[in-house]
Amino acid sequence: MSAFINEIEIAQILERNQNPDPAKVSAVLNKAKEMKGLDLEDVAVLSKITDPMQLFELFEEANHIKEKIYGKRLVIFAPLYISNLCANECSYCAFRAKNKSILRRSLNQDEIKRETEILVSQGHKRILMVAGESYPKQGFQYIIDSIASIYEAKVGNGEIRRVNVNIAPLDLPDFKLLKEAKIGTFQLFQETYNRQIYSEVHTGGKKKDYDYRVTALHRAMEAGIDDVGIGVLFGLADFHFELLALMQHIQELEKVFGVGPHTISVPRIEPATGSDLSAHPPHAVSDLDFRKIIAILRLAVPYTGIIMSTRETAHMRRDTFALGVSQISAGSRTNPGGYSDSLHDDSGQFCLGDHRPLDEVIRDVAEMDYIPSFCTGCYRLGRTGQDFMDRAKPGDIKNHCNPNAVSTFMEYLMDYASYETRLIGENLIEDVISSMHGLARERAITLLEKVKNGNHDMYC
C-alpha cells in the first residue's frame, strides 16, 4: 500500500482553506518569492483563489520566478508514438484494449527509423518515445530495440540527442535495462490520485493496480534513472485534490531519493476516438483554472520543468509560457506512423489542439522573444537528478542552459529554418546576447562562433 498519498490529509487541508483571507494569500505569495517551494497548505490556499487581483498577483509571481530561473528559453521536443497496442481498459483513452474504433499498429524498427528521420529532417533533437501498455511478440526487448533505432537514425548532420520515454511501469530489472539503453527521462502519469475514481476509470489490465503504478517512479530511481517525469490527467478528479496529491508524491520522492521529479506534465482530457468519457470529463478544468494550476506548480516546485503538449491550442500554449511552462512539444502526431503517413487516421491517442508544423511554432515562440532550445547538454554531461538541482538552485545552471539554448537555436536556424523564421531568430539571438552578462555571455559568444563556422552539437 502506497501510504504517501493521504486522501484524509488532503481533505482536511482543503477544508481548512475553503475561503482563505487576503492576508493568508499574500503571505503565501511572499513565501513563494524566496523560490524555496511551497508546502501542501500553501498550495491549497493558492488553489482557492478567485479574486481577480489575487489571480493577477499569482500569475505575475509565476512569471517572475519562471524568468528568473529559466530565462526566456523554451525546450522543444516531439513525441514519437511507436505502438498503440494496449492491454488496459482506460475509459478516457483511444488506445484501450476493447476499443474497435481505431486501427492497431506497432511500428517495426525500419519504420521507427523512418519516423525519426522525418523528425530529424525538421530539426528536432529531442524525442519522447511513447507506446501503449502492451508490446509486440518481442516483449520488452521491443522497447530497447526501438530506443536504439531512434539513436541510430541520421540525416546529414542531424540526429536525435536525447530519447525520453513514456511507457508502462516496469519491475526493477527492466528499469535497469532502460537505464542501460541511455534514455533521458522516464515519464509516467498516475492519471488521477483519487483511488475511487482511479478504480472506476481503469477497469481492466495491469493498470488497475493503483499501488504498482504510483510506486513505479521509486523503482525507476532505484534503478539509477535519476530524471523522472510525473503528471496528472486533469479532468478525472477535482483539480484541488490532484494538486495536493501531486505534491505528496513529489515530497515522497524528495524524502526517499533526495530529489523530486525532473518534469511535471499538465495534460487535460481531450476527446479520443471511441471514448465517451473523454468528450465529457467528470471534473472538467476551465481555462482559468488551468492557468492557475500551472502558476501554482511554478511557485510550489520552482526548479522543476513544466511540460505543455499540443493537446492545448496555440493560444493557450502562448498564455502558459509566462506562467511557468518550460518545455513544449511541437509538430506532434499521436498515432504510430503519423509523421510519414500523408493521410492521418483516427488512431491517435487523443485529439490535438495545436496542429502547426515545427517551423511555425518556432517562429511564433521567437516572435514572443522566447529562445527555442534544442539543448541536451545536461543529460550528456551527467548534470541530472541531484546534480542538476544543486546547480539550478544557486543559479549556476543558467550559465550552461542559456548559452546552449542560443547555440542550438542558431544550429536550427542555419540548417532547418525557413527564411522568415531565420530572420526573426537571428535578430532575437542578437538581442539575447546583448542582454547576457559574465560567464554566460562569454560561453554563448564562443558557442555561436563555432556553430556559424559549421560546427554542430556545441554545448557546455
From TrEMBL:
<protein>
    <submittedName>
        <fullName>[FeFe]-hydrogenase maturation protein HydG</fullName>
    </submittedName>
</protein>
<dbReference type="InterPro" id="IPR013785">
    <property type="entry name" value="Aldolase_TIM"/>
</dbReference>
<keyword id="KW-0408">Iron</keyword>
<dbReference type="InterPro" id="IPR024007">
    <property type="entry name" value="FeFe-hyd_mat_HydG"/>
</dbReference>
<dbReference type="InterPro" id="IPR058240">
    <property type="entry name" value="rSAM_sf"/>
</dbReference>
<keyword id="KW-0004">4Fe-4S</keyword>
<keyword id="KW-0411">Iron-sulfur</keyword>
<dbReference type="GO" id="GO:0042364">
    <property type="term" value="P:water-soluble vitamin biosynthetic process"/>
</dbReference>
<feature type="domain" description="Radical SAM core">
    <location>
        <begin position="72"/>
        <end position="303"/>
    </location>
</feature>
<dbReference type="InterPro" id="IPR007197">
    <property type="entry name" value="rSAM"/>
</dbReference>
<dbReference type="GO" id="GO:0044272">
    <property type="term" value="P:sulfur compound biosynthetic process"/>
</dbReference>
<dbReference type="Pfam" id="PF06968">
    <property type="entry name" value="BATS"/>
</dbReference>
<dbReference type="GO" id="GO:0051539">
    <property type="term" value="F:4 iron, 4 sulfur cluster binding"/>
</dbReference>
<dbReference type="GO" id="GO:0046872">
    <property type="term" value="F:metal ion binding"/>
</dbReference>
<keyword id="KW-0479">Metal-binding</keyword>
<keyword id="KW-0949">S-adenosyl-L-methionine</keyword>
<dbReference type="InterPro" id="IPR010722">
    <property type="entry name" value="BATS_dom"/>
</dbReference>
<dbReference type="GO" id="GO:0003824">
    <property type="term" value="F:catalytic activity"/>
</dbReference>
<dbReference type="Pfam" id="PF04055">
    <property type="entry name" value="Radical_SAM"/>
</dbReference>
<dbReference type="InterPro" id="IPR006638">
    <property type="entry name" value="Elp3/MiaA/NifB-like_rSAM"/>
</dbReference>
<dbReference type="InterPro" id="IPR034428">
    <property type="entry name" value="ThiH/NoCL/HydG-like"/>
</dbReference>
